[in-house]
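Justification of resources, computational component.

The compute hours requested in this renewal are based largely on the per-chain cost of generating structure records like the one below. Each record pairs the submitted sequence with a full structure-token output. That output is archived, and it is also reused by downstream analysis tasks.
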Amino acid sequence: MTEEQIRKILDKLAAGQLDVPAAMTRLRYLPFEDLGFAKLDLHRNLRRGVPEVVLGEHKSAAQIAAIGARVVRAGQNLIVTRLSPEKAQETRRKLRAFDYRAEARLGLIVKEKAKPIGHGPIMVISAGTSDINVAEEAALCAEVFGNRVTRLYDVGVAGLHRLSAGLDSLAEAAVLIVVAGMEGALPSVVAGLLDKPVIAVPTSVGYGTAFGGLTALLGMLNSCSSGVTVVNIDNGFGAALAATLINRVGSTRGSG
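The structure output for this chain reads:
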């Protein structure tokens, strides 16, 4: 349930257009709705300004569809992360409006486009083309959360002239999400060049001693550029939410 929906219920109650039992019925899903296999936090959008995001990995298509149908009925935007093409196709049979973005492994139903928020755009940067799936998860989530998003892909440390060519656009961003695998060096470089918040996302891209992203994670945590914030391996969604909250601090809706 969104803030606007609750406000309408209270306005109708105050105007005598709705009695107390009817208002209670409409508010009965606060703070969550129990589906048996899942407890949906339909109140999260009111508390945090973003809806609960569904992790599609390890859930069945039937569970995702049931959760999605209830989220959409509540008038909220649906985001499903870590979703395989096969599971997305099966989910779409039950949720016709389900929009699958294969590159990001992300499923969406946008009921209401979020109003622009924040101090400026969030820029998502990827070190390599192989990191784009995680970068796109971050970019799409940030857009649904109400941010303007710009992208700069394949500008890793093996060819820093590619990054330096885009410094003007980097300087225009309010927050930077930097996605990198291998040794995970790019966030340190970016953070050393600009006075912007940098959120580093290690990816599981790399050869044997990359250890599925652990090397990039440790490299980012040990960054010699101060102030780099690091999220978990392949966690584009987490980076998008962190960037959104940073972008909102002290700002008003409509300024982004």
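The longest helix spans residues 61-73. The radius of gyration is 20 Å.
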